[in-house]
Structure formats: C-alpha cells, structure tokens
From TrEMBL:
One of its GO terms (cellular component) is cytosol. A motif (Q motif) lies at residues 25-53. This is ATP-dependent RNA helicase RhlE. Residues 25-53 form the DEAD-box RNA helicase Q domain. Belongs to the DEAD box helicase family. The keyword Ion transport does not apply. Residues 56-226 form the Helicase ATP-binding domain. The chain holds residues 29 to 260 of 397 of the full protein. The keyword Metal-binding does not apply. One of its GO terms (molecular function) is ATP binding. It comes from the Bacteria. Signal peptide: none annotated. Coiled coil: none annotated.
Amino acid sequence: ESTLDPRLFVKKAKPSGQAGFRTEKSFETLNLNPRLLANILAKGYQTLTTIQEQSIQPLLEGRDIMAISKTGSGKTAAFLIPIIEHALKDSRNYTALVVTPTRELALQIEEEFKSLVVGLQLYSATFIGGTNINSDYKQLERKLQVVVGTPGRLLDLSDRKLLKLNQVTTLVLDEFDRMLDMGFVNDVKKLINLIGKRDQTLLFSATLEPNQMQLISALLNNPIEVKVENSG
Ligand code: ADP
Ligand code: MG
C-alpha cells in the first residue's frame, strides 16, 4: 500500500555552484572503488549535490527510490555511481536498464557513464530511435552492464528477441515526468511487464504530479522518497 505523500518528503537545500545544489560532503566519504572515485574527481566533481547526498548511500544499500529534483541538480551521477559500484561487484549478472524520454538524454547519460568507468571494464550501449537498428545488433553481442534507451527502440529490440528485458536487474526511469508528457506511459508499462522481477527500481523526475502517484507506487518497492526543493 502506498504511503507516498508528496508533502511528507520535502527537504530544503540552498542552491550553490553550477550544479545547483552543493553539499559539503566529499566523494571520498562514500568508500567507492578507487578508480571510480578518481574518475569522479577527474570530472571536477568535488562535493556531492543535495540529491546525490540523499540518494547515493541508500542506493548503494539496494533501496528503491523516488527522487524529485530540478533539472541540473546532478541526478545522472546520483544513479550512475551506485550502478557502477553494483556492477563492479557482479559484472556477469548485473544489468541496469536506463529508460529516458529522448535520444539526446540517452546519449548524455551514456557519455557520463563512459567518463565514470574509464579503466573499469564495464560496458554500455545506447538504443534510440532514428538510428539503423542493424547497428544495435552488434552491440548486443557482448555483455552490457548498462543499457540506455528510449522506450520505442527498447521495445522493438525486445520484440526481435535481441534485448532480453527479463535479465534486467536494475531499472532506472529517468525524467519520468517528461516520459509521461511525451505519451510514453503505455510503452513504459510494457517495458516494466517484460522486465518483471528485478532487484532495484529507481525513478527520477523534475516534477511530481499527484495523479502519477498510483502508477509510481506500483513500480517501487518500499522506496526512499527524496524531494529537493529550491529554497533560494
Ligand atoms: P539532472 O539530471 O538533475 O538534470 P545532470 O546529472 O545532467 O542533472 O547534471 C547537471 C550538471 O551538473 C552536469 O554538467 C554534471 O556534470 C554536473 N554535476 C553533477 N554532479 C556534480 C557534482 N557533484 N559536482 C559538480 N558538478 C556536478
Ligand atoms: Mg537528468
């Protein structure tokens, strides 16, 4: 039964720095794989953003999450860092599927992933509309720890039995509000049914509409609920 009441999980944060919301917490405190930490620092990230501070630790512990935080607050690293830690511990069985509403976002997420896994031998692919589907086939020949894509292309590859959605262990729904705005609700529901049982589900959104709560709470298992609000 859902206990998700948007009024109950408001945490205030002051915006500072270009990432919007910075905390004082350094990445060194997270006990990450040393190479991952080095890659984070090489990107120029010094302290966690508020959404990262509130999400990364529970995600490392395997919790589901519903995270609401405005664009530019650092949500991508908030989900990729725990994904990479989990993938490093079980690279043969681990598959995260990151579903995004647009091609541009999908490409940005994979780019961030690649910059974070330099030297770590984890593999990703992006499957988006508007590209020749034949070039997707080759990428699916190798074990991928992270698959990023838009709903239509992911379903297409699943229909063709190329992408095995039932092997997904972690599902990330990024920009969920935009996904619904763009009319992907049925595609997302189909994807979720094909994935079936999974270890972890992460939902990120810039906004939260009360009429989405029923759908959201059906997707998540006892999630932590984080909402970062701009108080500045
Ligand atoms: P969102 O998904 O919330 O819109 P992004 O993940 O795209 O935000 O991040 C926005 C920008 O902030 C990106 O340029 C990203 O590289 C940068 N960024 C993310 N986390 C940090 C951090 N901890 N410190 C500095 N910059 C960061
Ligand atoms: Mg984002």
